[in-house]
Amino acid sequence: MNRTSRTFATVAGIAGLALVLAACGDDADSSSSADGDPSGSAEPEEVTLSVATFGTFGYEEAGLFEEYEQLNPHVTIEAIPPLDGGPYHEDLFTKLAAGGGLADVVAFEEGHIGRVLQQADKFVDLGADGPDTDGRWLDWKTSRATTPDGRLIGYGTDIGPLAICYNKELFAAAGLPTEPEEVAGLFTTWEDYFSAGRDYVAATGKPWFDSSTQMFNAMVNQLPEGFTNEDNEIIVDSNPAIREVWDQVTTAIEEGQSAKLAAWSPEWNQGFANGGFATQACPSWMLGVIEGAAGPDNAGTWAVADVFPDGGGNWGGAWLGVPLESDAREEAVALAAWLTAPEQQIKAFNSAGTFPSQVDALNSPDLLESTNEYFGQEVGSLFAARAEANGEAQHKGPFDGAIQENASSPALQAVEGGTSAEDGWQQFLDETARIVE
Amino acid sequence: MATLTTQRGPDRSSTPTPARTTVRQRLSRLDVAVSPYLYITPFFLVFLLVGLVPLAYTVWVSLHRWTLGGPDPEFLGLDNYVRLLGDEVFWNAVGNTVAIFVISSSTQIAAALWIAVLLDSRIRARTTFRMGVLLPYVTSLVAVGVIFSNLFSDENGLVNAVIEGLGLDPVSWHRDQLPGWIAVATMVNWRWTGYNALIFLAAMQAIPRDLYESATIDGAGAWNRFRHVTLPMVRGTVIFVVITSSIGAMQLFTEPMLFTPGPGGNNGGPSRQYQTVVMLMFQESFSNMKLGYGATIAVALLVIILVIALMNFLLSRLIASDSVAPSRRRLRRRAEGGATR
Question: Which residues make beta-bridge pairs with A377?
Fold first, then answer.
């Protein structure tokens, strides 16, 4: 929490600074116009823009903020140190409700978009007030951030087409193929995937995947309908597909396939480096996570296969929006538009694996020919193919983020800790009911 | 003097008093009567602004179905409180909080007393050691949380490595209830034991040394000196420490939150094994967006703390009157003894 209040202090400080700078700018402007020099007023005012993101967006890594400052000398960008996704969104929603303390450009994630849309009136309508957006993004990417009455509240940053990542050394040790093309053949359906896991556990005695919550989230994300239907009704207990996913994942837990690591915990990070598990559901942005967690010593250990069981899926991806409370809306919209433009999306992809959501970027040779040195593979074309297979991202309701964090994930952790699958399912339903209430 | 003349009150009659004295007199009277209140007003204004108003507002919020960033709040009356009383999850959190308090306080006070006795004895580099025990207290709580979470890691933690080294089964610190309580209590203790030891040390240094001398002459060993001299003399301080730590323990949040696997988790274990009241309040308010119910938990927590404070108050009065009585008697006896001699 310290971090949050520090962030708040920083934001407040920046806002104050921006006010002072804006006031100075006004002064300079009025004096120059008094001189009757029309060229003086063309010089843009000094402005400081704060940008809040979470996890890894690749902007900092690709040097995009410095680049923008060089292109626009009057702009100073203050990048707020990114939190993890969960705490970041809690912070975002608290500040939205409080009506203050937000950055000039804020990111929000796919799992939370339903909740952000509920408060769409607190954001700039980018469709009306920003550059033209028609046909630039994948259609679903734009429509998921558009309110029923047509307000667009976020420019799409990345999408999360799903593939499977695997540890080549562990595969070799277990006598499995290691070349991505061959590995892809192992995972056509979830049944194939879990049966390969069963064999792997039998052969090595080691876990197959990192965490049941990661698998469950990926599999639920793949369903045509997840926790919430298009009418924003919670359908966790009435959607038989969710129960099926639950049964598949909990069976795998019983078979010892799960390494039982809480996603994003230190142990989970260590698992990438020390061979804690062999496979991992891999949305494109996971490449950056794996590289960071496994470290330079393990370069070439991990690979990604051009496959996802039972078709495709999308996990994650984000948007950049501009809160109405921002003092420098126009400048903030311009920055958000620039950061999400095809050229920048490709740079971010090359630095952090955040996969572009703009059509031009998806078709650009820069992307299709891009290779990831750490994985030693042409990942651009691979994920472009995954994005093609993936279709639309699922509809997310306002409670989906909370259900995933406070209902399904703890219930699965309980099953990993020894609770029966049936009791765990009941816990999942009870906790969901508590959230929806 | 000024007041005297006014009270005698020639001005009460129809004749007007000379303006000179009246203004001065009134000012000075005003000064005496009003100034003190004026001086302490800033505190109460600030307290009103940042203490009382938010408190009253919390009570107001708790009477509504109030969704964070959602539609307009709906007035529910006391429904939230009725729900709270029957909410297993809430009582589970209360139980966890009390259990962690009992585990941490009992061990912490014993350890702090022991450290204080050591620091009170003649050792080399006393000041260094005395400052040293305070070091954990100045460490960032987040760093403490991260490090202890690693030490108590279920998979590859140091504590489990030691336990396995002893030939025992590893413990599921993050998944089971009692181990979770112990791990969280350990974090709390690591931070607060040294601080409390210094408070005990201060109390011990106020004990007259001749008491120890007499005890030694009477043949009391180190344990008996501690049991019959030190302990009774620092009893008041122990009560003070229990009171402050009990109120702090009711608000326990950061340690168990950082201990929860996965960042930002407020569930306190997969099935709320070590979720404290404040964690539940935070989860309901900001994660589940139920600001109204979160406020209800906050008010309930306030009531719990008030009850504990009242119990502490009564208990300390009881013990204080107990401990004052014999010392008075002793004084009287000593005085009488002096007289006969």
Answer: A372
Q: Give A 3-22 residues with CB within 8 A of chain B.
A: 3
Tens of pLDDT along A261-286? Answer: 988 888 898 999 999 999 999 988 89
- Tell whether B142 lies on the interface with A, counting CB pairs under 8 A: yes
Q: Largest Cα–Cα distance in chain A? A: 84
If DSSP codes are grouped into helix, strand and coil, which group holds residue A314? Answer: strand
User: What part of B 169-208 touches A (C-beta under 8 Å)?
Assistant: 172, 174-176
**A2-158+316-368 against A160-315+378-436: fold identical:** yes
Q: Do A97 and B69 touch (CB under 8 A)?
A: yes
Query: Is residue A130 very low, low, confident or very high in pLDDT (cuts 50, 70, 90)?
Result: low
Query: For A380-396, what is the mean pLDDT?
Result: 81
Q: How far apart are the first and last CA of chain A?
A: 27
User: Which of B69, B254, B283 is the closest to A406 by Cβ?
Assistant: B283
Domain ranges of chain A: 2-158+316-368, 160-315+378-436
Q: If pLDDT is split at 50, 70 and 90, which confidence band does A68 have?
A: very high
This model of the complex carries an ipTM of 0.76
Mean pLDDT of B88-101: 96
Token code pair at residue B201: 């040390």
Nearest CA distance, A436 vs chain B (angstrom): 8
CATH number of A160-315+378-436: 3.40.190.10
CA angle, A289 as apex, A288 and A290 as ends, to 5°?
Answer: 95
Return the CATH fold of A2-158+316-368. Answer: D-Maltodextrin-Binding Protein; domain 2 (3.40.190)
DSSP A130: S
Question: How many CA atoms, within 13 angstroms, populate the side-chain half-sphere of residue A145?
Answer: 30
Shortest Cα distance, chain A CAs vs residue B50, angstroms: 16
Q: Which two three-digit tokens encode residue B40?
A: 């302490």
Measure Cα distances from B278 to B178, B192, B266 in Å: 19, 19, 9
